[in-house]
Design a protein that fits this description.
Elements lengths: L2 E3 L20 E3 L4 H10 L6 H8 L3 H8 L10 H13 L6 H7 L10 H13 L2 H20 L1
Antiparallel strand pairs: 1-2
Helix pairs in contact: 2-3, 2-4
Length: 149
């Protein structure tokens, strides 16, 4: 498999350190989560599924079920995917949130910045209760729509 870099097709050597906010993330075509995890574990110099599970806060049986394809991956909590990205990065393995989200067939959610979330929460708390309920329904609908695209 070859990596397809977006948008400029840079090679591994030329590629800058990637952040989830940059458009230069890459994915391996057709790579599902078990294949991605197997590849990244292979690049992590002796780390195991148990190491990944422990450091990412995922139970080993759950991670093992994903790896063995006995449990679906399409509904994995986005924070679990981000946690695995961070573990691999700490281990010195280059990966991106986009790789993980693509491997489970979902678009990458926007970055979860504390400042942005605090601003959203501040605005939410200023709304009357009926508007808060409407906002939550709207956000749920937007999330469902983004999962079908």
């Amino acid at each position: 498999m070859t990596r397809n870099f977006q948008p400029n097709g840079a090679s591994d050597v030329d590629e800058p350190d990637l952040d989830e906010d940059q458009d230069q993330d890459f994915v391996v075509e057709g790579e599902d989560l078990p294949v991605l995890l197997e590849r990244l574990l292979g690049e992590s110099q002796g780390r195991t599924q148990k190491d990944l599970a422990a450091e990412a806060g995922i139970s080993y049986p759950t991670l093992n079920a994903w790896m063995n394809r006995t449990r679906g991956t399409s509904r994995i909590d986005p924070e679990r995917l981000r946690a695995m990205v961070e573990v691999f990065r700490r281990w010195g393995v280059r990966t991106t949130p986009r790789e993980f989200f693509a491997s489970v067939g979902r678009p990458v959610p926007g970055p979860s910045g504390d400042e942005r979330e605090a601003q959203l929460l501040k605005l939410y708390r200023q709304l009357p209760e009926s508007r808060q309920r409407a906002l939550v329904k709207n956000a749920e609908a937007m999330l469902q729509l983004s999962r079908t695209i």
